TrEMBL record:
It comes from Nitrospira lenta. The keyword Mitochondrion does not apply. GO terms for molecular function: ATP binding; ATP hydrolysis activity; branched-chain amino acid transmembrane transporter activity. This is Urea ABC transporter, ATP-binding protein UrtE. Coiled coil: none annotated. Gene3D superfamilies: P-loop containing nucleotide triphosphate hydrolases (3.40.50.300). SUPFAM superfamilies: P-loop containing nucleoside triphosphate hydrolases. Keywords: Amino-acid transport, ATP-binding, Nucleotide-binding, Transport. The gene is urtE. Belongs to the ABC transporter superfamily.
Length: 236
């Protein structure tokens, strides 16, 4: 589904990602873990084409997308919810959501559009109450729901989530967890989740990838993640 092979990324002359390799299978939820500053967000940005890859290969469904533009990656099935959410502040909630739908490779007819939006409204009922509000005035929890809803409307094959629970009130964290569990059970698309909360990740993820100093240092099934590995790579 999504495969990174020996990815190297630089900021100027600073070598940030070092030979990063891992695979996310179709329908799988995988958690990308590690201390702050080890390269997790950089990895997601490289996957989306927001940062150039100096060497290595990124493949989606067997197709090399290493040098594809970000918009083409989106149309091929990558969706990204960044840590800062990046809601367009002067657009309404409805307009932000429409941007997600327009990113679909195949938009379909009006019935398809209604079905897609109805799903987002079912997952995040709060959005139906604030459709005409500008994105910039929303609370953090509302913005996160909007950002995830917008990504889902693009009909992704792989959804990239960068710390979706950071700074969010507990009730919304529970709601986001329920949404991820629902998609995990349906296996409709793969999810690569960056999450600092070990217990949150353990409840949701099928597999894990741990990074340290820009490199992958451990990977496997979440059920096999040992306390020793957590202590070595995650505990400050």
């Amino acid at each position: 589904m999504l495969q990174l092979q020996n990815i190297n990324v630089y900021y100027g002359e600073s070598h940030i990602l070092r030979e990063v390799s891992f695979t996310i299978e179709a329908g799988q939820v995988a958690c990308l873990m590690g201390r702050n500053g080890v390269g997790k967000t950089t990895t997601l940005k490289a996957i989306m084409g927001l940062l150039p890859v100096r060497s290595g290969q990124i493949a989606l469904n067997g197709m090399d997308i290493t040098n594809e533009a970000t918009d083409r990656r989106a149309r091929k099935g990558l969706a990204y919810v960044p840590q800062g959410r990046e809601i367009i502040p002067h657009l309404t909630v409805r307009e932000n959501l429409q941007l997600g739908f327009w990113a679909r490779a195949t938009k379909g007819d009006s019935a398809t559009e209604k079905t897609a939006f109805d799903e987002v409204y079912r997952l995040f009922p709060k959005l139906t109450q604030i459709l005409e509000r500008p994105g910039g005035v929303l609370s953090g929890g509302e913005q996160q729901q909007l950002a995830i809803g917008r990504a889902i409307l693009s009909d992704p094959k792989v959804l990239l989530l960068d710390e979706p629970t950071e700074g969010i009130q507990p009730s919304v964290v529970d709601q986001i967890e329920d949404v991820i569990i629902g998609f995990k059970n349906s296996r409709r698309f793969a999810i690569l989740l960056v999450e600092q909360g070990l217990h949150f990740a353990a409840r949701l993820a099928d597999a894990y990838v741990i990074m340290a100093k820009g490199a992958v240092v451990a990977a496997g099934k979440t059920s096999e993640l040992s306390a020793e590995e957590v202590k070595r790579h995650l505990v400050v």
